[in-house]
Amino acid sequence: MLTRLASVLVAWVVVLGGAMASEAPFELEAKIVASEGSDTDWFGRVVRMSGQWAVVGAPNHDGIRGDRSPPYDHNAGATYVLRKHESGEWLEHTILLGGWHGDSFGDDVAISGPRIVVGASGDDTPVNGTDCGSAEIFVLDSNNQWVTETKLLDSKGGPYEYFGLSVAIDEDTIAVWARDDRSVVIFERTSSNWHEVQRLQVSGTARHVYRVAIAMHENVLMVADVFDDTLGPVTGAVYVFVRDGGIWVEKQKLFASDAAAYANFGTSIDIDGDRAVV
Fold it and tell me: Over the stretch 167-183, which tens digit does the pLDDT of each residue have?
């Protein structure tokens, strides 16, 4: 059953002799409940953290923009931003609303430093058409408020592409999944402008994939293809790209050590420093 709860866990982890060792077990630090909405909002479908900030997507939220009558838009989507205060308490800082009816704003979210990226796979735009999708960037301003910086669109996009189903950000680089041509689109920021700089396609074509998991840290990008059948039907694989001289190049393809048919290896991935979890 889908719920609108997201849990924030805290643990202290050290590296000893090349192995991961916990100094303490994971303990529940807080349970966050959406301040408004319903149990069909999918609050907590995606959760990302950076420092004192946590971002929670609710892509089926009906939206409360206040500039329509009635002010509700079915499945417009919302993204909740939480902040951990000095007291140790996690409190809702703001709710980001960027969608209209069916936009699914919050399909995926990512945060890095003072920037949040929110995917809205059902967004309609005059440029790319119905359900072309987009990725909206928010920046933390001098008043400690998250404000829109820009909206990213696929330069090769079109209707029903659902651009923004998967997003990732690391400092001045953003990656967004483009379903139509099965590629990850890379954007980079120079000064205050974001530019599309490269399109990455995995060697296996990810032929059946509606959405992929992507994760990025510094000069490493990971892209999952849960339908990869190299080791058997739908066993899954993860592609590793490395940025060398400003260009992203595919370097490695990872498989599960205990690969099994229909295991969908790569359903969720993350990376931090020189370690990744799949």
Answer: 999 999 999 998 877 88
Place of tokens 């483009």: 178
Q: Considering the entire predicted model, what is its pTM?
A: 0.86
Q: Using CA atoms, how far apart are residues 50 and 40, in angstroms rounded to an integer?
A: 27
pLDDT digits (tens, 9 = 90+) for 8-26: 554 333 333 444 555 566 7
Position 85: which residue type? H
In whole angstroms, give the CA distance from residue 203 to residue 196.
21
| β-sheet bridge partners, residue 87 | none
**DSSP bridge partners of 274:** none
Q: What are the structure tokens assigned to 22, written together?
A: 């916990």
Distance (Å) of CA 136 to CA 5, 15, 30, 120, 163: 24, 36, 28, 8, 11
Tally of residues, the chain: 278
Mean pLDDT of 264-272: 89
| CA–CA distance, 185 with 12 (Å, rounded to integer) | 34
Q: What span, in angstroms and rounded, lies between the C-alpha atoms of 170 and 220?
A: 10
- On the CB side of 135, how many CA atoms lie within 13 Å of its CA? 32
My answer on whether omega of the bond before 70 falls inside 30° of 0, hence cis, is yes
